[in-house]
Amino acid sequence: MDNLFEKTLKSTTVYDGKVLHILVDDVELPNGRTSKREIVVHQGGVCVAALDENNNLYFVRQFRYPYKEVVLELPAGKLEMGQTPLENGKRELLEETGCVGYNFISLGQMYPSPGYTGEIIHLYACRIKSKDKQQLDEDEFLTVEKIPIEKAMELILNNQLPDGKSQIAILKLHALLKSGKI
């Protein structure tokens, strides 16, 4: 089958929340049959791998309700309307860690779970220019810690850093550092 495209025949909103919207679509498959697709619509997100002068990465630990556990991850957040992904990344880095970055580079985008959501997370890396106080939202509770990038690589390889966006950003950044491209 050369044509893998699925044509949307009908789209029904079944939930319209503050962060998520859920659709059930009727689609026509490449073979002409029909099926249903359940889609979680999300505005997208951003994740920043921020390095200090000693190649320590800034991480946050926060309780993630769906997993009922405190998760170690890079600073990240959802995209806000009217701002570019990079502007969102700079804002999230400042809010969550108190850091101002410079020399931002794109590490690309990731699709966290393409089987049921259209969410796209934009990945960036930067160096830390200055550090001040966190500027957390009223309902945001997290702690900041610095971890050397080599130790972060060990955490990934030992299955101690399960957050996908953080893994991808760290692996890409580590490869770029090793190749001398940044």
Index terms:
globular, 182 residues, alpha+beta, 2 domains, 4-stranded mixed beta sheet, 3 helices, 3-stranded antiparallel beta sheet, Nucleoside Triphosphate Pyrophosphohydrolase, 21% helix
Describe the structure in your own words.
With 182 residues, this protein is an alpha+beta fold. It folds into two domains: 7-41; 45-179, Nucleoside Triphosphate Pyrophosphohydrolase. 21% of the residues lie in helices and 43% in strands. The chain contains three helices and ten strands; from the N terminus they run βββββββαβββαα. It has a four-stranded mixed sheet with strand order 7-4-9-8, sandwiched between helices. It has a three-stranded antiparallel sheet with strand order 1-2-3, with no helix packed on it. Helix 2 crosses helix 3 (164-179). The model has no long low-confidence stretch (mean pLDDT 95).
